[in-house]
Amino acid sequence: MAWNNLTYAGWGRARSASGKVARPERQSALSRDVATTPAPAFGLRRSYGDVALNDGGTAYDMSRLDRVLSFDAETGVVEVEAGMPVGALARSFAKHGWLPAVMPGTGFATVGGSIANDVHGKNHHTEGTFGQHVTEITLLQGNRVEIITPESGTIWQATIGGLGQTGVIAKAKLQLMPCPGELMKLRETRIANLDAFLKAFDDSDAPYAVGWIDATATGDRLGRGIFEESELVAGRDAGKEHSRAVPLNAPGWALSAPIVRLFNEAYYRRIPARGKTSVKPIWDVLFPLDAIHDWNRLYGKRGFNQFQCVIPPERVDMLRTMLERIGASHLASPLAVLKKMGAARGGYMSFPMAGYTLAVDFPNRDGATELISDLTDMTHDAGGRIYFAKDGVAEAAQVKGMYPEQGDWVKAAAKADPGNLFETDLVRRLELRDIAHMAQDETGA
């Protein structure tokens, strides 16, 4: 297989890596090369920070391994290669009455990446995480091929949400869920402030629910936004797929504080006071930004970082404090999301926990890194955790204790990969597999 010297980045483009990258086109080639050159793998790099990067090392680009290998039309079990984009899977099977049970906010996330980060979606409170609907995974661990299932014990829990540290995910079987068609009924409602948002989440019985937050709002309007509730409905997507692209890096002033405030005000007001109901294709509701290719260029050539945390329900006071801090900073972009999560999670290092998850994009400009670091400390103090799929800023000391089962994951990862050959930049930066670091944390030293 050919190895090319490349410089590549996560979706946020604030962190990058350089090294040799191979792009296999067949499972046989992947197996052969991983046997001789074990290294981490990445997909379409829709994770925002450095979880998919291996600076100075080698890596496998899985994007050409994107085939459907088998499908049982009676049970809805499909086997796919790890490079299959979740959105492509949805478009292929929704017309036949089946849909991935859980999908993240972009259809460009691959199946392998969705397993490695145990992604969640707008229906986490009803369907849990992506990994909880996986029934089998084929792992390449150097010259060893291991096929695992939920009955495989610790290796399974270490792989779901395990950041690719138990081996290269080559292919997987997924249990799809029945769906009535390719459409969703969407109800959008203006929400006046954070208290009203929390009540809206508590009162909602919609299978899909998410909130857009105006992160520039302060005072009585703190936490205002738009509440989106949706459900799958029958019907075909008769429209043509339309897409636009951001051709160049936007100038620095494009997301300046005054412009963001004006945009957020207009976006908030686009929904009438009485609310708005519409019927749209599934992908338009679940992947709203995918229609704008290379939208990350809107943040300029320096890129951006996203902060995403989950806070226990009893600490909504900290959520309020975070929003106050963000609003006062004048650093937020228009992309800010609030969701209520259930307790469901698939593995030792899976992000979700019962509570509220807040995600905010920050252009990579002066003061943003310090703000995100402060928000990470606040998350730790509240007993919450940050989402590694989005992080590019945190330090090792800040994430200690956020994941109570990290010790079990470290042991399982060390058994699967004793030479630490599958480590990525994020794993090293946060010392996630450092046994001495873990032991020190347990003793309180």
Write the layout of secondary structure elements.
Layout: E1 3-9, E2 16-22, H1 27-36, E3 41-42, E4 58-61, E5 68-72, E6 77-81, H2 86-94, E7 98-99, H3 111-116, H4 124-127, E8 134-141, E9 144-148, H5 154-159, E10 168-175, E11 177-178, E12 183-191, H6 194-203, E13 208-213, E14 225-233, E15 244-245, H7 257-269, E16 276-281, H8 282-286, E17 292-293, E18 304-311, H9 316-329, E19 336-341, E20 355-363, H10 368-381, E21 385-386, H11 396-399, H12 406-416, H13 425-429, H14 435-443
Parallel strand pairs: 2-4, 3-4, 15-17
Antiparallel strand pairs: 1-2, 5-6, 6-10, 7-11, 8-9, 8-10, 12-14, 12-16, 13-14, 13-19, 18-20, 18-21, 19-20
Helix pairs in contact: 9-10
Notes on the protein architecture:
By secondary structure, this protein is of the alpha+beta class. The protein has a domain at 183-399: Vanillyl-alcohol Oxidase, Chain A, domain 3 (3-Layer(aba) Sandwich), CATH 3.40.462.10. 27% of the residues lie in helices and 26% in strands. The chain contains 14 helices and 21 strands. The protein has helices spanning 27-36, 86-94, 111-116, 124-127, 154-159, 194-203, 257-269, 282-286, 316-329, 368-381, 396-399, 406-416, 425-429, 435-443; strands spanning 3-9, 16-22, 41-42, 58-61, 68-72, 77-81, 98-99, 134-141, 144-148, 168-175, 177-178, 183-191, 208-213, 225-233, 244-245, 276-281, 292-293, 304-311, 336-341, 355-363, 385-386. It has an eight-stranded antiparallel beta sheet with strand order 16-12-14-13-19-20-18-21. A hairpin with a 2-residue loop joins strand 8 (134-141) and strand 9. Helix 9 (316-329) packs antiparallel against helix 10 (368-381). The protein starts with a strand and ends with a helix. The relative contact order is 0.15. The model has no long low-confidence stretch (mean pLDDT 96). Pfam families: FAD_binding_4. Residues 14-179 form the FAD-binding PCMH-type domain. This is Decaprenylphospho-beta-D-ribofuranose 2-oxidase.
